[in-house]
Design goal:
Oligomer: single chain
Number of helices: 7
Strand order of the largest sheet: 1-8-7-6-5-4-3-2
CATH architecture: Alpha-Beta Barrel
Largest sheet: 8 strands, parallel
Number of strands: 8
Number of domains: 1
Bound molecules: D-xylitol-5-phosphate, zinc ion
CATH class: Alpha Beta
Strand content: 15-25%
CATH superfamily: Aldolase class I
Helix content: 25-40%
CATH topology: TIM Barrel
Shape: globular
Radius of gyration: 16 Å
Distance between the termini: 5 Å
Order of helices and strands: EHEHEHEHEEHEHEH
Structural class: alpha/beta
């Protein structure tokens, strides 16, 4: 059975309580997802490297930094130095994806390629020797609390098949946007193994319980 990893996004959290939230989630999650937005690539601004640095000592879990910024290659070192273990960049935001992934890998972090809803996997086979996961955006990036784009189930399955056909079976599929108890099983069934959830976990009244519920819902859809 595919191991499901639960990755809460801090975007939906009460920012005054981030430290307490991270401690509360520690035993219920696999990865901590931090959304970085620059006000250019996406119409919102969020967390800088100093936030990652503050949270780093509070968790043993990998910190997954999702860079929704233009020219993400300029920020790899700053976020890695702050404590990021995984770093993903958008294919739409960097001119030289292969080089950017290599820089992330050379820094010692796991490297992810993020795809907006309208972007397909074409070309990824040529660069993913330096990649660990593909982040399939299941909403348009920039904000939490949006509805899951239904066509994403087909897209997740297509990306999983593409990776397998190109002998990239170790590259994982991460999904992000509108993931909750009602969409998690479908995502897992389609081939996603890392589930990012903001409102469904960090926006819930009991985030730790919500994380566990999401894992149960996803595991029901997980195959092989
Ligand atoms: C959106 C971010 C997501 C966001 C998801 O641009 O990349 O990580 O926090 O939030 P929900 O789960 O509320 O859609
Ligand atoms: Zn994200």
């Amino acid at each position: 059975m595919t191991e499901i990893q639960i990755a809460p996004s801090l975007l939906a959290a009460d920012k005054m309580q981030l430290g307490a939230l991270v401690s509360d989630l520690e035993d219920h999650i696999d990865v901590l997802h931090i959304d970085v937005m620059d006000g250019h690539f996406v119409p919102n601004i969020s967390f800088g490297p100093s936030v990652v640095e503050c949270l780093r000592p509070l968790t043993q879990k990998p910190i997954d930094v999702h860079l929704m910024v233009e020219r993400p290659e300029l920020w790899v070192t700053a976020y890695r130095d702050a404590g990021a273990d995984w770093i993903s960049v958008h294919v739409e935001a960097t001119y030289h994806l292969e080089r950017t992934l290599a820089v992330i890998r050379e820094s010692g972090a796991r490297a992810g390629v993020a795809l907006n809803p309208g972007t397909g996997p074409e070309g990824l086979e040529f660069v993913l020797k330096n990649g660990d996961f593909v982040l399939v955006m299941t909403v348009n990036p920039g904000f939490g609390g949006q509805s899951f784009i239904e066509a994403s189930y087909r897209k997740i399955a297509a990306i999983r098949a593409y990776l397998d056909v190109h002998e990239l079976t170790d590259v994982e599929v991460q999904v992000d946007g509108g993931v909750g108890p009602s969409t998690a099983a479908g995502c897992a069934e389609a081939g996603a193994s890392i589930l990012v959830a903001g409102s469904a976990i960090t926006g819930a009244a009991d985030p730790a319980a919500a994380a566990s519920n999401l894992r149960e819902a996803a595991t029901a859809g997980s195959t092989d």
